[in-house]
Design brief:
The chain is an alpha/beta fold. Among the domains are: about 190 residues, 2-enoyl-CoA Hydratase, Chain A, domain 1 (Alpha-Beta Complex), CATH 3.90.226; about 240 residues, 2-enoyl-CoA Hydratase, Chain A, domain 1 (Alpha-Beta Complex), CATH 3.90.226. It contains 23 helices and 25 strands. Helices cover about 45% and strands about 15% of the residues. The strands form seven sheets. Strands 13, 16, 18, 19, 20, 22, 23 and 24 form an eight-stranded mixed beta sheet that branches. Strands 11-8-6-4-1-12 form a six-stranded parallel beta sheet.
């Protein structure tokens, strides 16, 4: 019988569907086998990593070369870090706890003879985090092991770490630049006036200056006075620490920094010689001379008899890290990190979301293994409601009978203080930036701007709030009064809660609030914090409160990750990178860049969370010195 081939649109669609289904199956199979290959590779390389642990040879030098920004928590996801590391590129972030953990383990590791600190590529770090790392270096030295620092040049943040070394070396062409602190901002009023954009600022707090750039063309006298005060205290703390570590008279060190232009001119621009004269460094040496000195001190030669026996901090950390697994049900301390701007909703690690960070605290509270909680805060603040969501969880945790301590990092100001105030005890570094207890709101309108284009807005509404926040219309004075009332209430709530938490009267807190920024040392004097110290001291205190032994595990509570993220995290941090490095393999650069582009967020800071018709109230501090 003769077969008749179907023709027409329906058979074509049927064949197309079969083709699409076939392609779908092929893609699914490719993805499946790719995932399977990654899992097998992870297992194989993980075994290899364990074997490599034995390759840490006696007499090794732990080389610490931080590249990028010192952070409390990665803001890059594990896959992005893995891709960057596999490509041989820096991720631009160093997690403080990883660095400190490696230093502390090396202090008790007989295979590590000393530390070589190379801080040239440390691009950003707050003073409080530098203090934490510096304290770890001091503990390492306390075990009778030396720390040597070398750099082509030191800026003042890099030098604060180097000053903890037994011996500070500088390249003969280098310099040590202790410049002091500054806080300069751009002011946009002139530009906004030219564009015809009106900015309406609603605030409470004489010193609440975060939004001043939108309404002024210069810093207000109150802002300058407050900034001079807290920056002056931070700089004095810096000079005191360096002077103590380097055994230089404090006033001499201050004089040298203030007269640096004249002194550099006097030595004919030879900044290295000036650093020697000021006792900031112990000797001048090139990299080659550094290697010779280490060899002369008894450090064995490296591979093929070259350089010296060494291990990078990243590799050492991956080979010696001991994580607390889910099978470990011993009672312990939970740590939640709150770093970055505070915004509403869900945020990834390295940022603070009102809902997501509150959920982490709630998760820690509900875990049977949690007997104490540490909240590590490094935030200039943000949205008031998001901060309140987090504060409520802290309050509920204390009500559940779990001791809560806050450890303030580089900055815990405004909203950062809001989420801290209900802790049982607050620790701050002397150089922590805190306070800034104040509230503000911003609103933009642009009737003059569209008028310049020959456009006008007109119409009707059913009430005073209907269309009140239309940016094409001028702000109704009654609506302005309403917004100011909301801001006033926000400030009252803020001060009242602080007064209750700190066992002071409203008037006492209002006198030191008004949006004024304080250093950690000043905050202690005003009763805003309980003690000076870092995260180590905070953990020790809360461990005692919970009656936990020194061996009690420390668990960092972070957002759960999927299988691929966990694999990428483990691979990127250690085994895969080591294996690829040793084999000479690198991922193609375009893959790394594609991953970065796919995850880049065109964020506009706090204002990206704003919604039309909804008042956004902020407790935020523009108080990070340069």
């Amino acid at each position: 019988m003769m077969q008749v081939r179907e023709r027409g649109f329906i058979p074509f669609v049927r064949q197309l569907g079969r083709g699409i289904n076939a392609v779908r199956l092929v893609i699914i199979n490719l993805v499946f086998f790719a995932v399977l290959a990654v899992v097998l590779l992870a297992l194989l390389v993980g075994v290899a990593a364990h074997r490599q642990a034995a390759t840490i040879l006696n007499g090794s030098v732990l080389v610490i070369k931080p590249e990028g920004e010192l952070v409390e928590q990665y803001s890059l996801d594990p896959l992005q870090r893995a891709l960057s590391s596999a490509q041989g590129q820096t991720t631009g972030q160093i997690q403080v706890r990883d660095l400190i953990g490696a230093i502390d383990r090396a202090a008790n590791d007989p295979r590590i003879s000393r530390i070589l600190l190379l801080p040239d590529d440390l691009s950003a770090a707050g003073f409080a985090n530098l203090q934490e790392v510096g304290a770890a270096l001091d503990r390492f030295r306390g075990h009778g092991k030396p720390v040597i620092a070398w750099a082509a040049s030191y800026d003042q943040r890099q030098y604060l770490l180097a000053a903890h070394a037994d011996r500070v070396l500088l390249d003969p062409q280098g310099s040590v630049m202790l410049t002091g602190l500054s806080n300069y901002r751009l002011y946009y009023k002139g530009l906004l006036d030219k564009l015809g954009i009106d900015v309406h600022l609603f605030r409470v707090g004489q010193y609440k200056s975060a939004a001043e750039p939108f309404i002024l063309d210069h810093a207000s006298d109150a802002a300058k006075a407050a900034d001079s005060d807290w920056m002056g205290d931070l700089w004095t703390s810096y000079l005191q620490q360096v002077a103590g570590l380097r055994r230089i008279p404090l006033e001499q060190l201050r004089k040298d920094t203030e007269q640096a232009p004249e002194q550099i001119s006097a030595v004919g621009g030879d900044t290295a010689r000036l650093a020697m004269q000021g006792h900031l460094v112990d000797a001048l040496a090139t990299q080659q001379e550094l290697v010779k000195q280490l060899r002369a001190q008894g450090v064995p030669a490296g591979r093929q008899g070259k350089s010296f026996r060494q291990i990078r901090m990243e590799r050492y950390a991956s080979l010696t890290r001991h994580s607390v697994g889910p099978a470990d049900q011993r009672p312990g301390i939970a740590v939640v990190v709150a770093e970055g701007d505070i915004v509403g909703g869900e945020e990834a690690a390295g940022k603070i979301g009102g809902e997501s960070t509150a959920a982490l605290i709630r998760r820690a509270r509900e875990a049977k293994t949690t007997k104490a909680l540490v909240l590590r805060v490094n935030s200039p603040g943000g949205e008031v409601f998001a901060a309140e969501q987090i504060r409520r969880e802290i309050e509920l945790t204390r009500q559940a009978g779990i001791p809560v301590v806050v450890s303030m990092g580089d900055v815990a100001a405004s909203g950062g203080y809001w989420i801290s105030m209900n802790a049982q005890r607050i620790f701050a570094d002397p150089t922590t930036i805190t306070g800034s207890i104040g509230i503000f709101g911003l609103y933009y309108s642009a009737p003059a701007a569209i008028g310049k284009l020959g456009v006008a807005s007109d119409g009707v509404s059913t009430g005073p709030l209907a269309g009140a926040f239309d940016v094409t219309r001028p702000l109704d004075p009654r609506v302005g009064q309403m917004v100011q009332a909301i801001i006033n209430r926000g400030y009252f709530d803020f001060v009242s809660r602080v007064a209750l938490a700190r066992h002071q009267s409203y008037q006492q807190i209002d006198g030191i609030a008004q949006g004024r920024v304080w250093s950690g040392r000043e905050a202690l004097q005003h009763g805003l914090v309980d003690a000076l110290g870092g995260q180590t001291q905070a953990i020790a205190w809360v461990r005692q409160q919970a009656h936990l032994p020194a061996t009690a595990p420390l668990r960092y509570i972070e957002a759960p990750r999927g299988l691929m993220q966990r694999l990428a995290g483990s691979l990127g941090d250690d085994a895969l990178v080591l294996a690829m490095d040793s084999s000479g393999w690198h991922l193609p650069g375009w893959l790394v860049q594609l991953n970065r582009l796919s995850r880049a967020a065109p964020g506009l800071g706090l204002l990206e969370q704003a919604r039309a018709g909804r008042p956004n109230v902020y407790a935020y501090c523009q108080c990070q010195p340069q």
